[in-house]
Each structure stands twice: as structure tokens, then as C-alpha cells.
Amino acid sequence: xxxxxxxxxxxxxxxxxxxxxxxxxxxxxxxxxxxxxxxxxxxxxxxxxxxxxxxxxxxxxxxxxxxxxxxxxxxxxxxxxxxxxxxxxxxxxxxxxxxxxxxxxxxxxxxxxxxxxxxxxxxxxxxxxxxxxxxxxxxxxxxxxxxxxxxxxxxxxxxxxxxxxxxxxxxxxxxxxxxxxxxxxxxxxxxxxxxxxxxxxxxxxxxxxxxxxxxxxxxxxxxxxxxxxxxxxxxxxxxxxxxxxxxxxxxxxxxxxxxxxxxxxxxxxxxxxxxxxxxxxxxxxxxxxxxxxxxxxxxxxxxxxxxxxxxxxxxxxxxxxxxxxxxxxxxxxxxxxxxxxxxxxxxxxxxxxxxxxxxxxxxxxxxxxxxxxxxxxxxxxxxxxx
Length: 386
Description:
15 helices; 8-stranded parallel barrel
């Protein structure tokens, strides 16, 4: 399997969102009759979309707004919300600083210590609004922050890093035992990120209740350039979904797969589900909302790294409200608004009654799908060719 890239070395061909298309079948369904709900950690959500745990996207106010609209927003426990009583002041420093100094400024801001009492306070703020509280952190601090979050009433706890593994080695600290952590937490734990069948399978065997897929595809992430690692999201999602299906047949336990990053439009979201995803995680899409704390700016979670930042600050602009981005009405012609309408319409055209059936629709390799017949859009920089 794979193609020769040199003497004795083969490489497998992988595919991203722009290289495939979805094929309608023999049935079409009224989009109002399809079921777009998903279940994660035993909780049913009307919107199968998570807002990424990035400080330019999610604070407690955004999490509440997203929850009330039926979706999920993840608060980063190592972000400014747990370092500062007034996190918006820190965000405004990031947003307003000179582009040449932004990495230095962000590194300074994130060097402030995390205040554990703020973990409890932020979760309480979200729970008070009667929406699910979902938080994340990296494996090195999960053992410390997990019990605090659980005691505060957290509904879902996420451990995320650039790449996560069950077998982690370190001479500087004791690696987290993921099996023990998932068992001891007593609340749903989701793990990420991975891009490989075997890794996804090993994560599912820890007892977690969800796995994130994606290394480096995010709009503000530079891991692929800095580290040279990553797999295009269609192939990565297909491989991890295959692990999910195998694990389900073996154990009877269904572990949702969540495609994280790389999606810019409703069409990309639809393709992620067709590749096997149960839900998707978006950052850039929600950074554009009026409710986002970054006010149209967005930066990667790994950007504050003191010696090897793997992110950048980008300006995506404010294009509409969170409700418009999720449910419309769309005011833009580029597919970045009314994501739920796009998903329901795509499912209807493809004959998929629900997300599980959407995972089975036909896909084709179509490298010209973004350009075929779009000469005027390209020339005028509108629609798909902006």
C-alpha cells in the first residue's frame, strides 16, 4: 500500500477536504425531516458541533450562548480565563498589539500562573446558565485539574494535545495514566488528538467517551510547518472512524469520533461527517461571531509555548452573530454561515436520515471540485473563490 517516494521508502496517498466530493444516491429527503443530533458522553446535543477551546473563540459568555443554541463550547483551562480575573483585558492586549510583537506579547500574557479557584469559578458561571460545562487541558495538568473541574460540576472533561498517546515517555515528569484517569473521573472524558487507526483504537481502549482527530489543520495552527507532521483530515477521519467501528463490533461500545480543524465552510463540515465523523470541532468559524471574545482575531493554542510556538494570530473579522453562523439566515455567499442549514440540506440531497447514515454516503476523489465551472467566481473573487 502506498507509492514509492525513494529507494526503499513508500508513502501512502492521503486526502483533504478540497480533494473529495459527495455523491447523491437514489433517495432525497426534505432537509426539515433529517436528524442532525449527536450524543457525546451520554448527553444529546441538537448541534453536532463543538467550538474549539481557543481564547479568541470561547470564554464563559460564549460557552453559555453556544449551549443555549444547542451546541457545545469548550473552555480552555490553561487559557486567560483561568489566569486572570478579567480575561477580556488580556485578550484586548493580544488583539491590539503590533503584528511583529504578537508572539512575544502572547508568551508574556500566558506566563501568568493559573489560579485554581478560577477553574471552579468559570465552570460555576457556565453551569449557572443551565448549559453543559465542557473544559479541556493538556495531559501534564489533567491529573491536577480534573478533580477540581469534576467537583465544580463539569459535564465533560477533555484532554487535548498536539498529539496524544497512551504510551508516553518522559524523563522529566510522570506521564498521565489515561486508563486510570478515565476510570477515576466518573464523568465523560474525551481524548485527542490523533490521526491514525491504531492510535485511535488505543485511546478508545482507555475507557474514554470520544476521540478527536486532527494534527495541525487549524487556521491559526502552524504545527505542520514547524514540526512537519500531520495527515489530511478526510483520510485521518476515515481511519479513526474505522477504528471506532471495529471497537464497537468488538465491545458493543460506540466511541464518537470528532474531526477537529481544517473546515472553513459548510461543505467541509458535511464532508467530515461523510468521512465518518460523529461531530466536528471548529475554531475559525466561531471566531468570526459577534459573541467571540477575540472580536475577529484568532490564535493557536500552542502559540504561547515559551520556546517553540506553533501558532499565529490571524484576523478573520466579525461577520455575524453566533446564531447566524449556526442557523442563518446567511448574509455571506461563501458557505461560512448557516452551517446547520448546510448540513441538513446536504443530508437531504444525499438521502441520509441521520448522522450515522451520513457516514455511509458515497465519496469520490475530485481534485477539480473547487474550480470546475467557477471561472467567474475566481475572476471576481466571490462565492467559493474568494
